[in-house]
Amino acid sequence: MTELTHTVHSPAEISTAATKLRQAVLDAEISPNEVMTVFDSWAKSLDVREFDDLPGIVFLRMWLRRGTLEPIIARELGSNGLHGGWTEYGRAKCKAFPLGVVGHWPAGNVEIQPILSMTCALLGGNAALVRIPSGLVDLTRVLMEKLVQSDPGERLTRRIFMAAFEHGRRDLQEAMAQVVDGAMIWGGEEAVLQIRALPFPHWARVAVFGPRISVAAMDAGAWGNPDEQKSWCVRMARDVWQFDQQACSSPQVLYLEKGAGRSTAQFLSNLQRAFETENQAHPRRTIPAALTSKICQARASWLLNDAAHQAVFPMGPDWTLLFGSGSDLPPPIQGKTLTVLEVDNLLDPVSKFDGNVQTLGLGMADPEKERKLAWLAGKRGVDRIVKLGRMHVFVPPWDGVDLIRPMVRMVRHVCSTD
């Protein structure tokens, strides 16, 4: 079986791999339709019980499906982009051509991110040179073995090289940057700045998805509806649980609009039950000592800082709900810790956003109020405004940009015989 994940020790190994990848792109064109055929088979191979507990597997299966990807291709690459054809624009025609070799620097806090990032480049016909964070090597290898089985002709897998090496190997980081034509960089501020400072070729396209946070908000008509409360709370819990609340799209705070004569007591009780149910279905396996300490400190300081504050949590650090009021954005704690704040008007907290909020998850009963909120959120730097329960759905635009088109060249042709 072809091995796609490799432990790399020297810059020469990266250079050799990049040469082979570039030649694979030059030797044969592959259309998005052909890539999706392999992806669809890959998704089916992952839909087995033995993989059900792998982090992010349900999300990955959904992303790889043709039904998910076809609309994205049509929107980003044009009406004929699915089959790699030319799309007419007036007297001109445009067609997407690959950049060549696209390097990927995924963050280590989202288990399937190396694969998600890689798929974006492959859909554009590129080759993918992926650095695997040290903690994700075993999981990535298992998932990539299924891809190999789904691509017996190696039409796609010959375009992939997944390199495992320590983040501190500056020589390997530089070697990787020097041989790519495009780069997709994910992670925290320090990691992003270090990667961006690498010696990329001057023509390389660079897409950066840096550190941001996400929030949720509900108007009184939504959370106050007794027939829909439980459903909203389940959606909220699932958004918190995905990726252990470490992703940029993970909600850290929920703003609840105050309603005349409406008490939040029943809603908060339903939210607590939703957290308990989600924890039973997806219990925490391990937790770093530093995160446990951070959660305990957050619980204590929240209750001590204001007598009006409330909190609900189990004996362990599995999850935490902090209740209070105010429109300021509290610092993220993560570890499945959600701060719930009552506000007089949802426009108040959104008006304080400073560009660091990526996703706003909404539960709204008033369409006109939602329209105003979405407009203000977009103006204040929010890139994704979605329904609660869908905060992690990985579709473009992501962080305000497309996922596939930045890693292709849109070639314009005006026929000389016209």
How would you concisely characterize the structure shown here?
The chain has 418 residues and is α/β, with parallel strands linked by helices. The protein has helices at 11-27, 32-46, 57-64, 66-77, 113-122, 137-150, 170-178, 189-196, 220-223, 229-241, 265-281, 289-305, 347-350, 367-379; strands at 5-7, 87-89, 92-98, 101-105, 127-132, 160-164, 182-186, 205-209, 213-218, 251-257, 310-312, 320-325, 337-343, 357-363, 384-387, 408-414.
Which keywords apply here?
Aldehyde Dehydrogenase, Chain A, domain 1, seven-stranded mixed beta sheet, Aldehyde Dehydrogenase, Chain A, domain 2, six-stranded parallel beta sheet, alpha/beta, single chain, 418 residues, globular
Q: At the fourth CATH level, what is the homologous superfamily of the largest domain?
A: Aldehyde Dehydrogenase, Chain A, domain 1
Known CATH architecture of the largest domain: 3-Layer(aba) Sandwich
Which percent range describes the beta-strand content?
Answer: 15-25%
- The SS-based structural class is alpha/beta
Biggest sheet, open or closed, and with what strands and sense? 7 strands, mixed
- Helix percent reads 25-40%
Q: What is the total domain count?
A: 2
The total of helices stands at 14
Span from first to last CA?
Answer: 51 Å
CATH class type of the largest domain: Alpha Beta
